Amino acid sequence: MSDALRVLALVCTLKPSPAKSSSDLITTQLLDLFAERNIAGEAVRVVDYDVRPGVEADMGDGDEWPQIRQRIAAADILLVATPTWVGHMSSVTQRVLERLDAELSETDEEGRPAMVGKVAVAAAVGNEDGAHKIIADLFQALNDIGFSIPAQGGTYWNGEAMQGGDYNDLDETPEAVASANATLVRNAAHLARLLESARYPA
User: Fold this and answer.
1) Could you tell me which CATH class the domain 6-197 is placed in?
2) How many Cα atoms are found within 13 Å in the side-chain-facing hemisphere of 153?
């Protein structure tokens, strides 16, 4: 069985590079864990690209989603990391889902939707409640598009209610978050290798 799997992380912070981002931090932690399992990865901060609104694979006129889409197509595992804003995923995350909708009409040589056979996982961070709902919404959408969701494929950090502070302000990663991160990576790697060796039927 090949170990040559790849993970692509879409960091859906509202902050352009090089601003510090809690979504970027948890993504880095997860990519480091994937690397320990010989799964190479890269992160794309989506807000740094001109991703046009729409539900087509290419909206034309300078749309930079197609180059992100190529990286998704080349990956075996997709990680979506989002901040929490007013209890919801970021607008950048929602736009990613809208653009991924186009993949339902893209099929492989045997008629499967293009994303069938790829694994998707999610991370949410924020100093307010909402992570469970965000991950539920992400998993529903990503599964509709064709991604497979591993057991316990979500991780999150919520700050204390009605207080300030961000994930990237912590002195160390809370034990519960570190454990959830490790479980996410372990199960995503397992499922991706299973799907690599046994594809879904056409």
Assistant:
1) alpha beta
2) 26
